[in-house]
Design goal:
Heterodimer with OSBPL9. The chain is an alpha+beta fold and 699 residues long. It contains 14 helices and 28 strands. Among the domains are: 101 residues, Roll (PH-domain like); 357 residues, Porin, CATH 2.40.160.120. A hairpin with a 6-residue loop joins β5 and β6. The relative contact order is 0.09.
């Protein structure tokens, strides 16, 4: 009791992927067993913005860093908090743990556990029996009868004894058995008729019952830990109680809860055996390869992802997958079913963001720092529409470590907007010039070439590096992205952690930028993509910056894919341009002189990328690496695509295991580690500087 003091102060609270971290004023009320927070200290006399009951809560220091910790209430609500330093975190954690233990023990003494509980599954007979026949009033609850037995009045148990945990374990085992019977009963129903095994209500019942059992097992695990702490004393500082992993391997459930049986090694197609037998990447040449743009041909692939295809047919697999996931669960290591995949790698998706290279090259043509920043914002906002392949939310292949992708774009110099010396002409809509049918026939001097290379530099965490340059315009962009995906209920959120830098060497300017979060919504019906979050673009040399907000659709009303932003001069805090509209439709730019410009993204000309034919690509280049998966998806053969994908992933795991056993570090091919980021091994700002130095020496 000497240590049960009321404490208060500012902590950072994580709200969501869009809002991020915010400072809030927290108050620990030991007498009431409450953790409350307010917007600031001045509003402390008002009603709290949020309150957590600490009885039964779990206080967990995070292993992310030395400042973060979480408060997991018994109600399921969670606060993710961050202190200013490790010492302050330890102070809050220890006081919260003492308060939690005190109020948890008090409730345990005053509220004894239920003595017994019985579960019985409704009878499962033929389609005409009451147990399976559909009625308007029937729902998932009618499959279970739950009976509670009251304790005799006046009889109280001071704390939960070991035999009570045994009773709970027995009831859990009984419930697990009945849940398995329920799933078996559903899966044994006929595939057609009045009530089938693919009935949407039964599939939802199957998914929610499995999720419920997983949750109960997690709660039982926490009870065991708390009982152990009561036997040995309080939990030691720094103890973390983590949620259990799914009890069933996700990779083994592709067809309505049944394991997918792959053919034996001897029966595997030659392409699968080839995928598994490719030598360890580090044993292949890891020397950077110079790609000749003349070897590249205009891309003729046009794999739009507008067809739901197997997504509609495999609804049961999606429901089964959801039953294995928990809110906030990291999906990085979760093996997702093949039918939700796009027919391209994530590395190629980054390349498709460059599908308007004329707008990219036009940035450096701006006559002033203000104009160049506005042009960069225009290019940035037009890149996301073409980066998506259709309206349906599908997932690109996860690149394997060492995978690379190369391509280039050629465009006539006449298609690139130039500066005519006046602001009004600079704000005219981008010219939409069709490329000639035979770009190879053009004189090289009449074209600009933008070259692109991407590499998967890390597997855990999954980090990609990509680089693009236009030597003729003396400009390049370098970026690294770590994709972190989380399960959010009926949607999946992907955070793009990392940074990009655009270098305009002609002007000596560097523009740093970040990427928005992406969300796959309505994953049980027709999945669709939206972007969310705030991104910033900054140029330290010129003092110009841009703030762009990608707005997610509110629950009621509102528009889809809305984006707003402004460009300003930091020294004077003057807004020089405002932008609003939809990132996949029409954007409206309003300038400080009152002029307005509209950009219709659906009508912008798209320059096709140029890619080497498969026979000229290396074994770890994206299209050759995934060619059998892509061909199988095009043919609609999901089982075959799954087999090829599984062979690639298994090979990657074996290689990773071998490197760990031999303590062999992974060696990248095109990108070098630079602090927390990755930089292309031969960037234009280095080669241009070296060439200039050499020319100076020769003179």
């Amino acid at each position: 009791s000497d240590h049960m003091e009321n404490i208060c102060g500012y902590l950072m609270k994580y709200t969501n992927l869009v809002t991020g971290w915010q400072y809030r004023y927290f108050v620990l009320n030991n007498d009431a067993g409450l953790l409350e927070y307010f917007v600031n200290e001045q509003s402390r006399h008002l009603k709290p913005r949020g309150t957590l009951q600490l009885a039964g809560a779990v206080i967990s220091p995070s292993d992310e860093d030395s400042h973060t910790f979480t408060v997991n209430a018994a109600s399921g609500e969670q606060y993710k908090l961050r202190a200013t330093d490790a010492k302050e975190r330890q102070h809050w954690v220890s006081r919260l743990q003492i308060c939690t233990q005190h109020h948890t023990e008090a409730i345990g003494k005053n509220n004894p556990p239920l003595k017994s509980r019985s579960f019985s599954l409704a009878s499962q007979g033929s389609a005409n029996s009451p147990g399976v026949q559909r009625r308007p009033s029937q729902n998932a609850v009618s499959f279970f009868n739950v009976g509670h037995h009251r304790l005799p009045t006046g009889k109280r148990v001071p704390i939960m004894q070991p035999d009570h945990l045994v009773d709970v374990r027995e009831m859990m085992s009984q419930a697990e058995g009945q849940q398995r019977d329920l799933i078996r009963s559903i899966e044994c129903l006929p595939a057609s008729g009045h009530l089938t095994s693919l009935d949407q209500d039964l599939l939802m019942l199957k998914a929610t019952s499995m999720a419920t059992m997983n949750c109960l097992n997690d709660c039982f695990h926490i009870l065991q830990l708390q009982h152990a702490s009561q036997q040995k004393g309080s939990l030691p500082a720094g103890t973390t109680i983590s949620w259990l992993e799914p009890k069933i391997s996700l990779a083994n459930h592709f067809k309505n809860g049944a394991a997918q049986n792959f053919p034996a090694e001897i029966n595997k197609p030659a392409s699968v055996r080839e995928e598994q037998s490719i030598a360890e990447p580090c044993q292949l040449t890891r020397e950077p390869e110079e790609i000749n743009p003349d070897d590249e041909l205009e891309d003729i692939c046009d794999d739009k992802e507008d067809d739901l295809g197997a997504v509609e047919e495999q609804r049961s697999v999606i429901l089964h997958l959801l039953s294995q996931l928990k809110l906030g669960m990291d999906l990085t290591r979760v093996v997702l079913p093949t039918f939700i995949l796009e027919k391209r790698s994530l590395l190629e998706m980054y390349a498709d963001f460059m599908s308007h290279p004329d707008l990219f090259v036009a940035i450096t043509n701006g006559s002033s720092p203000e104009e160049r920043m506005i042009r960069f914002v225009e290019y940035y906002l037009t890149s996301f529409h073409e980066g998506r392949k259709g309206a349906i939310a599908k997932k690109p292949y996860n690149p394997i470590i060492g995978e690379t992708f190369h391509c280039s774009w050629r465009m006539p110099k006449s298609s690139v907007a130039t500066d005519a010396g006046t602001n009004s002409s600079a704000h005219c809509p981008s010219e939409q010039v069709a490329l000639p049918k035979d770009p190879e026939g053009q004189a090289e001097l009449d074209c600009y070439t933008v070259k692109f290379v991407a590499e998967q530099v890390s597997h855990h965490p999954p980090v990609s590096g990509f680089y693009a340059e236009c030597v003729e315009r003396n400009m390049c962009v370098n970026a690294h992205v770590w994709t972190k995906s989380k399960f959010l209920g009926m949607s999946i959120g992907v955070t793009m952690v990392g940074e990009g830098v655009l270098h305009l060497l002609e002007h000596g300017e560097e523009y740093t930028f970040s990427l928005p979060c992406a969300y796959a919504r309505s994953i049980l019906t027709v999945p669709w993509v939206e972007l969310g979050g705030k991104v910033n673009i900054n140029c330290a040399k010129t003092g110009y910056s841009a703030s762009i907000n990608f707005h997610t659709k509110p629950f009621y009303g509102g528009k889809l894919h809305r984006v707003t932003g402004e460009v300003k001069q930091n020294m004077t805090n003057t807004v020089v341009c405002r932008v609003q509209g939809e990132w996949n439709s029409v954007l409206e730019f309003t300038y400080s002189n009152g002029e307005t410009k509209y950009v219709d993204l659906t009508k912008l000309s798209v320059t096709r990328k140029r890619v080497r034919p498969l026979e000229k690509q290396g074994p770890f280049e994206s299209r050759r690496l995934w060619q059998h998966v892509t061909e199988s998806l095009r043919d609609g053969d999901i089982d075959k695509a799954t087999e090829h994908k599984r062979a690639l992933e298994e090979r990657q795991r074996n290689e990773e295991r071998l490197r760990a056993e031999t303590e062999t570090p992974w060696c990248t091919k095109y990108f070098l580690k630079d602090g927390d980021g990755w930089v292309y091994h031969k960037p234009l700002w280095k080669t241009a500087s070296a060439a200039q130095t050499q020319q100076t020496d020769s003179n």
